[in-house]
Amino acid sequence: MGYAIGGVVILLIAAVVVIYNGLVRLRNRTDNAWAQVDVQLKRRYDLIPNLVETVKGYAAHEQSTFEQVVEARNQALAAGTVEEQAKAENFLTGALRQLFALAESYPDLKASQNFSELQGQLAETENKVAVSRQIYNDAVLTFNNRVQTVPSNLVAAVTGFAVKPFFDAPGEADQAPEVRF
């Protein structure tokens, strides 16, 4: 009888260890996926000053639009949580749309090779951000499912694992800024 109880205790401990290790792996996968989103967002932020400077050369009197793009970029850089990042990205996407709409008024700017290259790089980066966001959200879904389902939810509660937020860019931010030539 004593061996049976000891065997059950050992099995329970082994199960807790296996569940805990699985949660750690999923948390690490989610953190890694967020790091990939962050890399793409930083690439995007690095492109924006060059884009603004290029447009400024053609439309110097449109200062409020430039300030709005720079402010949106700074808010996105300062965002600390996934929710703040999503909100900041929505604002930045709107500001970039205004910048591209402004560019439509300047045929010489649209014809500029530098502007075209920056637009192309930004569009490519927007696609990479979308893919990275999807990978992150998939990792979060897997992690959250594990944290919320029995029996792993019991281990998660005891060891401090909590659900992670999805990176949802609300509204129109799901679309890349429109680029027209």
Q: Can you characterise this structure?
A:
The protein is mainly alpha-helical and 181 residues long. The chain has a single domain (2-174), classed as de novo design (two linked rop proteins). It is 80% helix and 0% strand. Helix 1 runs antiparallel to helix 2 (63-78) and helix 2 (63-78) runs antiparallel to helix 3. Mean pLDDT is 90; it is low at 172-177.
Cα separation of the termini: 80 Å
Radius of gyration of CA atoms, rounded to a whole number: 23 Å
Helix content: over 70%
- The CATH superfamily is known as LemA-like domain
Q: Would you report the number of β strands?
A: 0
Please tell me the total number of domains: 1
Question: Could you report the average pLDDT, rounded to the nearest whole number?
Answer: 90
Given the structure, what is the number of helices? 6
Q: What order do the helices and strands come in, and which of them pair?
A:
Layout: H1 2-58, H2 63-78, H3 82-104, H4 107-111, H5 113-148, H6 152-159
Helix pairs in contact: 1-2, 1-5, 1-6, 2-3
Compose a concise summary of this entry:
The chain is mainly alpha-helical and about 180 residues long. It contains six helices and no strands.
What brief labels describe this structure?
181 residues; mainly alpha; de novo design (two linked rop proteins); 6 helices; 80% helix; rod-shaped
